[in-house]
Design goal:
This protein is α/β, with parallel strands linked by helices. It has 3 domains: 47 residues, 434 Repressor (Amino-terminal Domain) (Orthogonal Bundle); 132 residues, Response regulator (Rossmann fold); 139 residues, 3-Layer(aba) Sandwich (Rossmann fold), CATH 3.40.50. It has 12 helices and 12 strands. GO terms for molecular function: DNA-binding transcription factor activity; transcription cis-regulatory region binding.
């Protein structure tokens, strides 16, 4: 399909080319409704600004795009706080897109970011994203920094939590409190965070002379009614698990509800530990043990790296991965007596 032009958008909406151009630049001269119509039309027609023309103009939008799976997710809301703090200090606006965990919306978000001529992109991949051709195409126009959920297929800086160490610490804690059949609930297997947390879980088992049992691992999505059936599958095993380690606090909350519905006592019958450290984790009943990720600091570091690339106008060094430490918070959901000497 031939790329759309400003004239195509103007013809489609029956407005002038200059109005389209100013709307795409987010000019104060254009009313919000017209801007909305122009942006929707640009996305529908797959309009992309000409990067050569933009570079000749030497223009900068002083805007960054941030693409995350879900703003309501506690981790991402905290990361966005860190991103906005540093971006505003350095004179940049932030445009936020959420994919709602779908690849299709992620692709659409990148198209809109290009149409708005952002200077760079910060992204955490959706749970459906297993290929990165759309990001490689975007990278021809503006720099990218990945954070949290990242892809090794994309040559960009990455800023992540130490998922391996966090999962290792969580699993080892359960082992030290006497648990031997530790189930692991996680999300899609191709995601970086899934692989790293699964590797940490497995390493802790093997280091403590416990065999890795793949029947104790369940992969899923963030579906609202999904955790209960997965818990039932695991409890039907013989012997059943005596602990659950979930790859996110969102899964942990679902697991907590499912275990309660099945009249299992936590931690007397089964222990439960999560990963993220929701603000309400210590207010649950029982209070939830969890691994904390430094989300705000990850956001700050990711945007600082992106702005350094933008302002230098070239990639001064090969892409590198920054790994930030996690912290284990032990609360009532795993509070049996520690069996270590």
């Amino acid at each position: 399909m031939e790329a759309a032009t400003l004239k195509d958008i103007a013809r489609e909406l029956n407005i002038s080319v200059s109005t389209v151009s100013r709307a795409l630049r987010d000019s104060y001269e254009i009313n919000p409704e017209t801007k909305r119509l122009v942006m929707e039309c640009a996305t529908r027609l797959n309009y992309r600004p000409n990067p050569i023309a933009l570079s000749l103009k030497g223009s900068s939008s002083k805007a960054l795009a941030v693409v995350v799976p879900q703003i309501a997710n506690y981790y991402f809301s905290q990361a966005i706080n860190g991103i906005e703090e540093v971006a505003q200090q350095r004179g940049y606006d932030v445009i936020i897109f959420q994919t709602h965990e779908t690849y299709e919306r992620e692709v659409a978000a990148l198209r809109q970011a290009l149409a708005r001529r952002v200077d760079g992109l910060l992204i955490s991949l959706s749970s459906e994203t297993s290929t990165v051709a759309h990001l490689q195409e975007f990278q021809q126009h503006a720099p990218i920094v990945q954070f949290d959920r990242v892809s090794s297929q994309l040559a960009t800086p990455r800023v992540v939590a130490d998922n391996f160490a966090g999962a290792y610490a969580a699993t080892e804690h359960l082992i030290k409190t006497g648990r031997r059949r530790i189930a692991h609930l996680t999300i899609q297997p191709w995601l970086s965070i899934t692989q790293e947390r699964l590797a940490g879980y497995r390493a802790a088992l093997e280091q403590n002379c416990l065999a890795y049992d793949e029947t104790l691992v369940r992969f899923g999505t963030f579906g609202p009614n999904e955790v209960g059936p997965l818990v039932d599958e695991l409890l039907a095993l013989q012997p059943p698990p005596d602990a659950f380690f979930t790859a996110s606090d969102r899964l942990a909350v679902g697991c907590l509800a499912a275990l309660r519905q099945r009249r299992l006592r936590i931690p007397a019958d089964v222990s439960l530990i999560g990963f993220t450290n929701l603000t309400v984790a210590d207010m649950l009943a029982p209070a939830l043990s969890t691994v904390e990720q430094p989300a705000t600091d990850i956001g700050r570091e990711a945007v600082a790296r992106l702005l350094d690339i933008i302002e230098r106008k070239h990639r001064a060094a090969p892409p590198a991965t920054v790994t930030m430490p996690t912290a284990l918070h032990v609360r009532e959901s795993t509070s049996l007596m520690d069996l270590t000497p």
